[in-house]
Amino acid sequence: MKNSRTVHVCSIFPFLLAIVWSGFLGVDFSSGQTSQVFRLDGGNSTYAFGVNERGELQPIYWGGRLGAHDVLAAPHSMPEMASFDSPYTTTPQEYASWGAGLFTESALKVTFADGNRDLVLHFVSGKAAGAGAFEALLKDISREIYVTLRYSMDVESGILARSAVIENREKQAVVIEQAAAAQWTLPTARYTLSYLTGRWAGEWTLNQEPIQGGSRVIESRRGTTGHQANPWFAISRDDSGKSVGPFAAGEEHGEVWFGALAWSGSWRITVEKTQLDAVRVTGGFNPFDFGYQLKPGEKLETPIFYGGYSNHGLGGASRLLHRFENAHILPQSPNPKPRPVIYNSWEATEFRVDEAGQMAIAEKAASIGVDRFVMDDGWFGQRKDDHAGLGDWYVNKEKFPHGLKPLIDKVHSLGMDFGLWVEPEMINPDSDLYRKHPDWVLNFPGRPRSESRNQLILNLAHPDVRDYIAGFLDRLLTENDIAFLKWDYNRNWSEPGWDAVPVEEQKRVYVEFIRNLYSILADLRKKHPKIEIESCSGGGGRVDLGILRYTDEVWPSDNTDPFDRLSMQDGFSYAYTPQIMMAWVTDSPHWRNDRTTSLTYRMLSSMDASLGIGANLNKWTPEDFATAKRLIAAYHAVQKTIVQGDLYRLISPRDGSKFSASETVAADKSQAVGFAFANSTEEGRGFPLLELQGLDREAQYKLAWIEGKAFPGTPEVASGDWWMHHGIQLDLRGDFQAAAFRLDRQH
Ligand code: DGJ
Hints:
37 strands; ten-stranded antiparallel beta sheet
């Protein structure tokens, strides 16, 4: 059955000038056409959208870069295919509002003061907003709700930043029930979706599955980014490329569309295959328990949703993201310093920190070439274990009778800088702060306050709380010579009430909390420009492109088992640069799996990232110190290539693989560093041939071993072609064995 329906062209449409716009080529306004098409070019990709005959903003193209003079036709809405599916639901939009019979995922859903919930956005105007940037203004067909869609494309990578600003110009307040940052539409094809999930001490599992009819929701309802899922996705086209897993996602070949959301609060990414097989991705604030009241004249700005395209498989997609993060996201962009090799006290001394003990360990850390000494939890308030102290940010006099200065001076005298652990957003009920301000925590009055790790969450949306946290951090950094803060966050939200504001404003907490977190971090960095910060949330619970604008590195997991870490580091690398991925060498047998590994294996597992040491150095033998010292020196010499080079995942450690290997190549191809791990060899079978990638084909490269060896006959110097095509046959056998080598281009 098919019903007919008259299509009405929007009345504002005839008055608009036709615009053809290109972010890369500059702005080119031309009149005399009846259509409006907007186009952005960057890196190897083109993104285009336009206004259809009904006045909706419709995606046209997202993929490989088109010719500069190629003409893109104006979009047309879908005809009505069945009375059950209106063209409003089957026609893709850049930002589909809920109304007019939309059954696919909406970007925006609003309830008006009079009960109306129908919202239909039409294009009003578009304008260039700086180099490679564009803004499109949309408005409801009758109500005074305006939405500005922002687009900004990075010329190098083609990664597009999208966000929306929703403005209420009605005379009464409205409630925003759902607000996405962006919606992305892919060409109709068969795809494999990749996404990251996990749990405490088990983060960064790469999941891959075919995209089938319906929706796959990746989200956090936890008030924070969360361990459970990470706000990143990649979608690989199935009909091209070599697969490294059970599904058709190619590692180095084939088309991939990917995205990452810059938000550290509750978030949601929905990947849907509609009833007409269109694949769309919608992401932004999580609509679960959302309800942002927007008063007349107020605006709500969404987070940024970054999206990109690669025709070099998942490897190409992650290399684009890594470069983009280093060049544009991190506080030290465009040239972030490779991370200092740190020592962290947590696994060695836990809460039992004191002046003499930390000084003794600091001496040992300095002797192996550590750059930064970080004292973890336990130095403040009445902190003997996790039952007390959070909120009371004064130095514990029993442990540090003369304050932190003697320890900091000692650390400096050893040639290291000093870092300190804090957990600013948290409070133990057993603290002076809680006894004074029990009303400062997230809670619903009269209801239980659920504790996790014996702690509650301070409501950062509350201006007094914001000021308290900003104040104590400023004092801590003003009064002490601290180079680095490890900023921890050890639980997720429960009972997220905010009773200091009227009921209708209380759900704004989901947004204001995170905004205040960002503003505290931004202000702190402004006042203390040399400070460096790590984002930690019981491991990798707060890693996203939002927090990374203010933090220099992250703690990917509390699980420091060197074998488990191989899969975690591999998963992490799909979305985030190794520059920020801290990895400590800790004790063996490991507390998590009771697994025994050699110090060399542990060192190499951590050196394939941003290296740190977290072992109890009081238990080390002279041989251990010698091994660590040699390997830290070798690491320092090639660290920039490892953490900022182009990463090639040569052999995946996932899915029970017995081997894994990775390679990073410096941007100018002058150096490559390889790591290989044999987790278990069987029946005398050797390590798979390593065919390297990304080298300068004709240049000569000299091979040097950081650890391990190759089969006899392997040349010392050979061409890029030789290393890439002939490959290296490692002599690596046994359980938990590791090798690392460098290739240096010869002049
Ligand atoms: C959780 C972190 O992930 C650990 O590294 C450590 O800092 C503890 N918190 C301290 O309480």
